[in-house]
Design a protein that fits this description.
single chain; 236 residues; alpha/beta; Rossmann fold; seven-stranded mixed sheet; four-stranded antiparallel sheet; binds adenosine-5'-triphosphate; ABC_transporter-like_ATP-bd; ATP-binding; P-loop_NTPase; ATP hydrolysis activity; branched-chain amino acid transmembrane transporter activity
């Protein structure tokens, strides 16, 4: 059974409709990647799922409604961790303060042990725990943004273009960490990416979004072999 089930989701900005009847499922414990050109609506989909923008249709996480819920129920409380495009870390707060903010709805004792766990997983963050987030490198800020979302102990992690602005080497390191997070925590990840090469390597399932509509779900391995995909996204 899918952990996340989305049916006929429509969303946009004011009078601009961006998503048209988007339906798909995300399997528990999988990394699912959504590929698509600039402006296809990938970020809008993640924003609709985490309640940042209004949407119609249905989306359920473990059977609980996440779209159309009451405004008082935050995405974090419903089990969704969202790392937005541009990371969204608080530059004027320290690394540790950013991480604590990610666990705001959890009991203090759990936050303390999670903090230590993430410092062990991302030693660079441990070394820089008292530094301001604004002083971190791009790769470190992305790690911080991901660790902050994971501090909320989500069931589903939404990642918007984590490779943006990172060198190929750093992107490789980051994607290896994502795979490790999936394996160690059995984390379910919905990833939106322009870097099709690397994301199809770490993903289990893949979909292509085009002008606000989603194609069918395929295995990432299958999509890598698709000639149209190779031409459009893999530089073949
Ligand atoms: P990119 O990788 O460039 O971010 P994307 O696939 O994530 O592409 P979206 O950011 O979801 O695409 O944008 C989809 C459409 O919605 C675009 O036409 C964009 O101009 C528009 N759009 C995005 N954000 C807003 C906003 N805050 N207000 C109005 N229109 C927006």
């Amino acid at each position: 059974m899918s952990l996340l089930t989305v049916e006929n989701l429509c969303a946009g900005y004011g009078g601009l409709r961006v998503l048209f009847d988007v339906s798909f499922g995300v399997e528990e414990g999988n990394i699912t990647v959504i590929l698509g050109a600039n402006g296809a609506g990938k970020s809008t989909l993640l924003r609709a799922l985490s309640g940042m923008i209004p949407a119609t249709g249905t989306a359920t996480l473990e059977g609980r409604r996440v779209v159309g819920r009451g405004r008082h129920r935050s995405a974090a409380r419903l089990g969704i961790g969202h790392v937005p495009e541009g990371r969204g870390t608080f530059g004027s707060l320290t690394v540790e303060e950013n991480l604590r903010a990610g666990g705001y709805h959890r009991p203090r004792s759990e936050v303390e042990s999670s903090l230590e766990g993430w410092y062990e997983f991302f030693p660079r963050l441990g070394e820089r725990r008292r530094q301001l987030a604004s002083g971190l490198s791009g790769g470190e800020q992305q790690m911080l943004a991901i660790a902050r979302a994971l501090m909320g102990k989500p069931r589903l992690l939404l990642l918007d273009e984590p490779s943006l602005g990172l060198s190929p080497k750093l992107t490789g390191t980051l994607f290896t960490s994502l795979r490790a997070i999936k394996e160690r925590l059995d984390m379910t990840i919905l990833l939106v990416e322009q870097n099709a090469h690397l994301s199809l390597e770490i993903a289990d399932d893949a979909l292509v979004m085009s002008a606000g509509r989603l194609g069918p779900k395929q295995s990432a391995a299958e999509l890598r072999q698709d000639q149209q995909i190779q031409r459009a996204y893999l530089g073949a």
